[in-house]
């Protein structure tokens, strides 16, 4: 009798827990820093409008962080349910707490590739026309947790220039996100800076997607003012991640919504992703293992 009572109690607690887990009232989306807050909120407004009905919540709230780490800490602390991270940001999250989030999708470029590039740009009128001209000059990075804006250049530039970053460049610093970094390059704060681009299409257009393209589309960048000095090897596109502890039924609804988004609402898809993409592809942690290993070896976490 006691055994049956205990089993009944366990079943009741389990059922109550499942109901509570499914009864998610607010879906919390973290948005990485790197672009001004008003633009980020405007680009994600379509999710505020469409997601509640699609996944069965009362409201969707947007949390635009000042930098990459703000979103990462929200995911680690369980105060965010969803975010799209760069590969290095995901690696940092994974190394801090492997089961905090799970990657579900990444973007596919218009040419079918699932990667993008770090590009180094300088002012066209600076007299700097190639990577070698940057010897002894000041290089700007986007954000310490950015894949294209810091990790990949740190790992791959030494081979390209034949020396460690700290020895080849006269000085380095951070621009406070991708958009601001490019603006600081244009101001002359940095002689050149690293940002992200699809590498698909033409540099003169800001490529098909990425920070440069977003800035061109917003009218705050004329590509005639920049010259490209260097382009990295292909970097895995960053993941859309969900809080791992989220109830499976809710995860399935979110996955279904985003899987259909490129066709159901192309304008929303382009707005949240920042340019032209073919669609989404499913990914898991294995897709990011090289970046996780690189971050662990280079930054340590």
TrEMBL record:
The coiled-coil segments of this chain are none
Respond yes or no to whether keyword Signal is given for this record. yes
Q: Which UniProt keywords apply?
A: Signal
Tell me which GO cellular component terms the UniProt record holds: ATP-binding cassette (ABC) transporter complex
Gene3D superfamilies associated with the record: Periplasmic binding protein-like II
BP GO terms, sorted: organic phosphonate transport; transmembrane transport
Q: Where is the signal peptide?
A: 1-20
Please name the CDD domains in this protein's record. PBP2_PhnD_like
Q: Which domain of life is it from?
A: Bacteria
What InterPro entries does this protein map onto?
PhnD, Phosphnate-bd
Per the similarity annotation, which family is this?
Belongs to the phosphate/phosphite/phosphonate binding protein family.
**Can you name this protein?**
Phosphonate ABC transporter substrate-binding protein
Report the source organism: Ciceribacter ferrooxidans
Classification of source organism = Bacteria, Pseudomonadati, Pseudomonadota, Alphaproteobacteria, Hyphomicrobiales
């Amino acid at each position: 009798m006691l055994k049956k009572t205990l089993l009944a109690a366990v079943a009741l607690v389990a059922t109550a827990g499942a109901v509570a887990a499914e009864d998610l009232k607010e879906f919390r989306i973290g948005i990485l820093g790197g672009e001004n807050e008003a633009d980020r909120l405007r680009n994600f407004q379509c999710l505020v409008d469409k997601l509640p009905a699609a996944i069965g919540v009362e409201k969707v709230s947007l949390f635009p962080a000042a930098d990459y780490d703000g979103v990462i800490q929200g995911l680690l602390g369980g105060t965010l349910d969803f975010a799209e991270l760069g590969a290095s940001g995901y690696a940092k999250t994974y190394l801090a707490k492997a089961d905090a989030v799970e990657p579900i999708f990444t973007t596919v470029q218009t040419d079918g590739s699932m990667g993008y590039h770090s590009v180094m740009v300088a002012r066209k009128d600076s007299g700097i026309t190639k990577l070698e001209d940057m010897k002894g000059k000041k290089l700007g990075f986007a954000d310490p947790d950015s894949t294209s804006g810091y990790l990949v250049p740190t790992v791959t530039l030494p081979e390209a220039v034949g020396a460690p970053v700290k020895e080849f460049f006269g000085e380095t610093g951070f621009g406070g996100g991708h958009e601001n970094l490019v603006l600081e390059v244009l101001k002359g704060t940095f002689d050149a800076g690293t940002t992200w681009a699809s590498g698909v299409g033409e540099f003169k257009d800001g490529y098909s997607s990425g920070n440069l393209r977003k800035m061109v589309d917003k009218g705050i960048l004329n590509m005639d003012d920049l010259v490209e000095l260097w382009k990295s090897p292909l970097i895995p596109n960053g993941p859309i991640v969900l809080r791992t502890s989220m109830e499976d039924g809710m995860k399935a609804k979110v996955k279904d919504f985003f899987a259909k988004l490129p066709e159901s609402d192309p304008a929303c898809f382009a707005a949240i992703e920042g340019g032209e993409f073919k669609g989404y592809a499913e990914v898991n942690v294995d897709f990011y293992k090289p970046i996780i290993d690189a971050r662990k070896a280079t930054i340590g976490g």
